[in-house]
Amino acid sequence: MIDRATYLLASPPTILFLITARGGSKGLPGKNLRQIEGLSLVGYKARAARKFDPSARLIISTDSPDIQFEAAKHGVETPFLRPAELASDTATSASVVQHAMAWIESNEKRTYDAVMLLEPSSPFATPAHFREAITLYTARNADLVVGMRAMEPHSTYVGPCLDNGSIAPIVDKLNRASGLRRQDQGEEWTMNGALYLFRWSAFKATGKIYGAPEKCFGLLMDRYHSIEIESAEDLALATFCAEKGYIDLSPWGLPTAKEKP
Prior knowledge:
By secondary structure, the protein is α/β, with parallel strands linked by helices. The chain folds into 2 domains: 4-150 and 188-259, Spore Coat Polysaccharide Biosynthesis Protein SpsA, Chain A (Alpha-Beta Complex); 152-186, no CATH class. Helix content is 33%, strand content 16%. Helix 2 (41-52) packs across helix 5. The chain is globular and about 60 Å long.
């Protein structure tokens, strides 16, 4: 973990913290206002950002007045309501970011060095994770630092099933890896949705969060802080992990499992 002194020496860039949370969700209705241990998913992202830097610019892009109200309770600015066309199932994260950046540039006549995109559906990114991401971003002169988790199982054991039920593509991979022990296959990562820190100018140039591959870096997070909530089952798992102390809730100002009566 990067300590505070190292972070300060890194001369961090100016950052717009942007929470994105639409009102509709088919998998889990009202998802972004659902609570874990008394705090909404929006609240988790807002509190972590505020604890990381109380003076940081923190805004929310949403189409929901209810979500705006909840965000404002946690110190989030609510400068606009997202237009309806950016609140559909087909709207992309990139289009939502473009709208927010264009609003800032048009209405405030300013820009930032970078955007920290925060999605409430992956609520458990802590202030320490933000600090590590910014330090990595600065040290690597990155265009993107994204939250990651380790994959299980290895991709050797994953593949398509053909229309007739055949698993030939998977077996082909297994045969090519014959003799290679599972523990020798190396670790694979995938994105966890917890944070996306990307360069303002690079995004403006490409319209993509994932730009030049050699300028993209991953910040590995453990399995518990990487939980993504898309269904009632995911919410139940996240709640269980919080209740049982697998996730330390103190970064959000909540009592830990040991502190509960």
